[in-house]
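User
Please review the sequence:
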Amino acid sequence: MKEYSVFDILGPIMVGPSSSHTAGAARIGKVAKYISGDDFNSVTFYLHGSFAKTYKGHGTDKALVAGILGMEPYDERLRNSLNIAEDKGIKVSFVETDLGNQHENTVKIVFNKNDGSKTEVIGSSIGGGNIIITNVDGYNVKMTGDHPTLIVTQNDKKGVISSVTAVLSQNNINIGVMKVKRKKKGVEAYMIIETDDDITDDVIEQLKNTENVLEVKVINPVKKR
């Protein structure tokens, strides 16, 4: 028999009207911001399924923008997020699209960075304010944003995984879930590591200085409250 938490029964504390279309959307936006970083000047939201059909009426547009601005689902400023983004000089646009075989409440968020690069994140709101991130920059992943998470991009060479896990062990950080994916053998790989412990700036610097590590991103848990 499945166990249910109070959160599952009562839902998240949030600015309404919908846990799936508002709270979940805000959480997707905030996790995507952690993945992208802060150095972006415009964001395009590609809305799929129910998100595409009802995003204005349910406030999904405002919630997504609130998320990429770093707001929590219960932040009262969520209602004014579009104006806040404009004041910050961040351009946002919404495109109704078909993302294929995805959950009905799915969005692809494309961040246009100040250096001319892009970060793409696909996430779904799966009910009760809960989310899942399924793709980052073309890599299929599975992240919920409920635990401290490392995304490590690396040269696909022997010994990199053991070097990264050694840094975590030396800093008393326990690995809960770890997945390794690669686009092409011997070129570039991706590690997704969920941990039981907070990841400090010092640990991040140690990982960045690890041989054959190309990039390190950290996702801190997005609070449901």
In short: The chain has two domains: 6-143, 149-219. Helices lie at 6-10, 19-36, 50-54, 60-68, 81-87, 160-170, 201-208. The beta strands are 40-49, 91-97, 105-113, 118-127, 130-136, 139-143, 149-155, 175-184, 188-195, 213-219.
